[in-house]
Design goal:
The complex is a heterodimer of chains A (248) and B (260). Chain A is of the alpha/beta class and 248 residues long. Chain A has helices spanning 40-48, 70-77, 95-106, 111-124, 140-152, 170-187, 198-204, 222-227, 231-238, 242-247; strands spanning 2-11, 14-24, 29-34, 55-60, 63-64, 80-83, 158-162, 190-194, 207-212, 215-220. Chain A has a domain at 1-75 and 191-248: Rossmann fold (3-Layer(aba) Sandwich). In chain A, helix 6 (170-187) links the parallel strand 7 (158-162) and strand 8. Chain B has helices at 2-35, 40-51, 55-79, 86-124, 127-133, 138-176, 181-191, 194-220, 225-259. Chain B has one domain (39-259). Chain B starts with a helix and ends with a helix. Chain B is built from 9 helices and no strands. By secondary structure, chain B is an all-alpha fold. The chains are: A alpha/beta (248), B mainly alpha (260). Chain A binds chain B through residues 45, 48, 50, 70-71, 74-75, 77-78, 80-82, 84, 86, 88-92, 101-102, 105, 154, and chain B through 31, 35, 118, 122, 125-127, 129-130, 132-137. The structure holds adenosine-5'-triphosphate and magnesium ion. Adenosine-5'-triphosphate (ATP) is lined by residues 11-12, 14, 16, 34, 36-42, 85 of chain A.
Chain lengths: 248, 260
């Protein structure tokens, strides 16, 4: 469904991506892990066409996103959704309006259908009845969940999640993992999930990819990654920093 | 010396960069108008915020400038025994210069600053990217409604400014300074014509365009974080007021050449 081919990207003189190659097939859940600052969010932005690579190409359903204008990208983005790392809720709109936004833009539903979709979406993320709050009145974790509701409400074919469970308590984290799994199963969505949480990565991922120094360092199933003897993978999976290894 | 050249050079390149970004925004606006229908509900919201809510400031500043101008003119004109000449001078100046300029400066400060702060903070908090990710063209959603709202509001605001300026001039001249009301009104009507009001309104539309596009450009291209937003806002207000005054000079020149 998506192919990233040899993506290079330099931001502010820093080589962030240095030749990423990834194939994501329809209906799978791919988890991207990697150290903080290794370019996971930047990779997601390339999939949506929010950033264009300096070199390499991004194909979505066989169509090259490189060189498409913002307007030509619109029909493609209608098939995608993204949960931003910091939520990126519209702070001038209430929670309900935020969730309704993608539906109203799409223009396929009546106002009644939109209202019931909002209620349903909020209940799905355990925030029933909070429609009228403003984003500024929400806690960090609540913002994240509203944002998740907004990203999923339109039920696009491809959903990109940038750290859906970071900053959430374990119970809510688990329910979000279940939600992702559920959307994947019932609607056969393709998901790309960035996470730091190895447990949820193994739970939801069909395949896991580890980015390191702007490249794909490891790609495999959760079992493969857990049993890998590669030092970088091992350190990451077991949460060991290089310094503590050195003193062993 | 080298330092000086460096600073000049850097600012020159910054200026060129802004010009380029500004040109790109104008192209984006045209593109957006061609591909998407105008979001009238947002235009209406913006008219309330930019137009209706600006009325008090515009009326207040318009009346102040009209009143002060009238009393200054009266000081000299009464020496010449032409007290009733205050009326046409105030009306002429309010219509052609003072009304549009004072209103333009107020709108640049009030509306321009808020446009660039709002767009700037939307940019830094990734809300603009969120719009893009939801298949919305940011220019269509953020810039075009503001532009149309300001193009509609500015002529109305300037009319108010002119009206209240002339009114305040009358109040100062006639009841306070004791000019004969019949002569005052008569002279005012005799020496100010619809083309004077027309000049004011043409200016107002151009000022609205300049303020809105410059402030949107600065906001959408702002740097990172709170500091970036602050800097963008300062630049937006400074650039749009300078652009306003420079434009005013050229418009005045061109219109006078054309009308005479
Ligand atoms: N807009 C930008 N301008 C300049 N540099 C950027 C920009 N966005 C990201 N970077 C740089 O790119 C690198 C990767 O950033 P990215 O946000 O993708 O990290 P990440 O893997 O998502 O990290 P985290 O897990 O902490 O979210 C960082 O070193 C950052 O400094
Ligand atoms: Mg990130």
């Amino acid at each position: 469904m998506i192919s990233l081919r040899n993506i290079h990207k330099t931001l502010n003189g820093q080589k962030v991506l240095q030749g990423i190659n990834l194939e994501i097939s329809e209906g799978e859940t791919l988890v991207i892990i990697g150290r903080s600052g290794c370019g996971k969010s930047v990779t997601l932005r390339h999939i949506l066409g929010l950033m264009m690579p300096d070199q390499g190409e991004v194909l979505f359903e066989g169509q090259n996103l490189m060189g498409l204008s913002e307007i030509e990208l619109i029909p493609i983005r209608q098939k995608m959704g993204m949960l931003f790392q910091n939520g990126a809720l519209f702070d001038s709109m209430s929670v309900g309006e935020n969730i309704a936004f993608p539906l109203r833009e799409e223009g396929k539903m009546t106002e009644d259908e939109i209202q019931s979709a909002i209620t349903e979406a909020l209940e799905m993320v355990n925030l029933g009845g909070q429609q009228s709050k403003m984003p500024a009145e929400l806690s960090g974790g609540m913002k994240k969940r509203v944002s998740l509701a907004r990203a999923t409400v339109r039920k696009p074919k491809l959903l990109l999640y940038d750290e859906p469970t970071s900053g959430l308590d374990p119970v809510v984290s688990d329910s979000i993992n279940k939600l992702i799994l559920n959307l994947d199963k019932t609607l056969n969505m393709t998901n790309v999930v960035v996470t730091h949480d190895m447990r949820s990565a193994c739970e939801i991922g069909d395949r896991i990819v580890l980015l390191h120094h702007g490249k794909v360092h490891f790609l495999g199933t959760p079992e493969e990654i857990k049993s890998s003897q590669d030092p970088i993978v091992f350190h990451f999976v077991n949460g060991i920093s290089d310094a503590s290894v050195a003193t062993e | 010396m080298i330092d000086f050249l460096q600073i000049v050079g850097r600012n020159f390149f910054r200026f060129l960069k802004h010009c380029g970004q500004y040109a790109l925004l104008l192209i984006d606006i045209l593109r957006s108008l061609r591909h998407f229908s105008i979001r009238w509900n947002l235009v209406a919201q913006q008219i309330v915020f930019m137009g209706v809510n600006s009325l008090p400031v515009v009326i207040l500043t318009g009346s102040c400038i009209g009143a002060v101008f009238a009393s200054q003119i009266h000081l000299k004109f009464s020496e010449l025994g032409m007290g009733s000449g205050v009326g046409p001078v105030v009306a002429y100046a309010m219509c052609r210069e003072l009304g549009p300029i004072i209103c333009g400066l107020m709108i640049a400060a009030r509306v321009g600053a808020s446009i660039s702060t709002e767009l700037g903070s939307m940019k830094t908090s990734e809300q603009v990217d969120a719009l893009r990710s939801m298949a919305v063209y940011p220019t269509d959603y953020l810039v075009v409604p503001r532009l149309i709202a300001l193009l509609i509001s500015m002529p109305l605001l300037v009319s108010f400014s002119i009206f209240f300026g002339i009114g305040a001039g009358y109040v100062i001249s006639v009841p306070v300074l004791g000019v004969e009301p019949a002569y005052y009104i008569n002279n005012t009507l005799r020496f100010t014509g619809s083309q004077d009001v027309g000049v004011g309104l043409i200016k107002s539309v151009i000022f609205g365009f300049v303020i809105c596009t410059i402030c949107c450009e600065r906001g959408l291209n702002c740097g990172h974080g709170a500091q970036g937003v602050g800097k963008a806002t300062t630049e937006a207000v400074v650039s749009s007021t300078i652009a306003l005054l420079v434009c005013n000079f050229f418009i005045t020149f061109l219109l006078n050449a054309w009308m005479s």
